Amino acid sequence: MIELNKIYQAKQKIADFVLKTPFVHSSFLSDFLQTDVFLKCENLQKTGAYKIRGAYNCIANLTKEQRQAGVIAASAGNHAQGVAISAKKFGIKAVIVMPEATPLLKVSATKNLGAKVILKGDNFDEAYAYAIEYAKENNLNFIHPFENENIMAGQGTLMLEMLDEVSDLDMILAPVGGGGLISGIASAAKQINPNIKIIGVSAKGAPAMYESFHNKSIINSKSVRTIADGIAVRDANKINFDIILECVDEFIQVDDEEIANAVLYLLEKHKMIVEGAGASCVAALLHKKIPLDGYKKIGVVLSGGNIDVQMLNIIIEKGLFKSFRKMLINVTLIDKPGALSALSDAIKEAKANIVKIDYDRFSTKLEYGDAMISITLETKGREHQELVRKTLFEKGFNFNEIL
């Protein structure tokens, strides 16, 4: 594990630059789970994620000559911004290699912080391999996102801050990709209070560290696919794996559907925008993946909030359909004046709101003289949708439900 004094030293080094983010009590999750749940809001960090902690501490520990040479990093986004803003603070050159599928939000944010961005590879591991070669060719210092003691020590400052606020925490949940965050957190926690239970949460679509933990040996993945791009790491590394085996008590997975539910939950209940990786631990709690009997105070790390706007829109829209607040139906009408008006009147009678409507009279699936209406409705829950169906049926409309 990382020595506790290194984590305290990191806390001092980053104090004047990195935000001490709120550690707030969640009344919603606490009521739902019948225990006290606290959220560490790293989505409110300077760069929108915890990664700035380790990046700044790592660069602060470089020699003067190393800083003059410049730094390079490989990242899906959050580490990139952490390195970029830290390099800018120290006035040094920074190059960031990002996977080609990295959300535009993260690419733009990294460029705006003054770093040179190179898009390379389908995932973090391919970007990483390219960055290593680029570093050698251009004499740059590689800042690893998780396989580095100074990085892990910086991330471990999160644990110190949480305990400063709530000294008697008895469980911590942290998201896991490469393992740098949980390595730092678990190292600090186990040296301060060995009884604190540490639980890692990974995305089902990026299972390397999860499978390695449960098999007690490194098992890499062939590919990764998850909306939680911040923890979409294909391969497990030995340094973080060894610390996780030593300090982490339990490791669970959540799938993309569960992660999306948690993103929407945090947005609606807490008015907080949290990315997929950041919401993964809340997903584990919402879907009751962890037995909580006997645990009174639980700390949950919301690791970041840099979610792509298009992804957020998809999550919101799908969530509205799943929670019966929207429905999409196809209605076949006789294509004559007044037919659409009659349909509109029926929907009005059912007190539903029309959000979108498409009119098609040319489909080869239609009888001549018919038209197909695709209509999206805003509704107020399951019972309201039953009323819409009942009203349309009673009015004689031929319809089928799409969503």
UniProtKB/TrEMBL annotation:
GO MF term (any one): threonine deaminase activity
PROSITE patterns per the UniProt record, alphabetical: ACT (PS51671), DEHYDRATASE_SER_THR (PS00165)
Keyword Lyase attached: yes
Catalytic reaction(s) noted: L-serine = pyruvate + NH4(+)
Required co-factors: pyridoxal 5'-phosphate
Keyword list, A-Z: Amino-acid biosynthesis, Branched-chain amino acid biosynthesis, Isoleucine biosynthesis, Lyase, Pyridoxal phosphate
Superkingdom, natural source: Bacteria
The family this protein is said to belong to: Belongs to the serine/threonine dehydratase family.
Protein name: Threonine ammonia-lyase
Record organism: Campylobacter peloridis
